[in-house]
Amino acid sequence: MADADTDSTPLDRDELVAGIDRTRADLARTIDAISDRVSPKKNVERAVDQIRERVSQIDPIVAGAVAGAVVIGVTVLILLRRRAR
To answer: d(Cα 38, Cα 44) in Å, to the nearest integer?
Structure first.
């Protein structure tokens, strides 16, 4: 018994091969995307790229001031420890 919604139009061999090739290419792209998402190496690369992007947005003057404050803080801490001895 044939379904009323489906037409039984004959497909030629070239159309079938083209459809299979499209499906194969789509599947290959999907597999590549999945393997890219789950790859630990790629995930690390993406994280490093994000950190580099954030660091590049930091104002150099502010970064210098923070680095100076850290150096001064460490120096004071060392001096206080030496005096305590």
So the answer is: 11
Which two structure tokens, joined as six digits, stand for 45?
């690369």
> CA-CA-CA-CA torsion for 17, 21, 22, 25, nearest 10 degrees?
170
Q: pTM of whole model > 0.85?
A: no
Alpha-carbon distance 49 to 47, whole Å?
A: 5
What are the CA-CA distances from residue 28 to residues 24, 66, 68 (Å)? 6, 49, 52
Kindly state the tokens that stand for 14: 């070239």
**CA 28 to CA 53: how far, in whole Å?**
31
What sections of the chain are H helices per DSSP? 13-38, 40-56, 60-84
Mean pLDDT, the chain, rounded, equals 88
Rounded CA Rg of the chain: 31
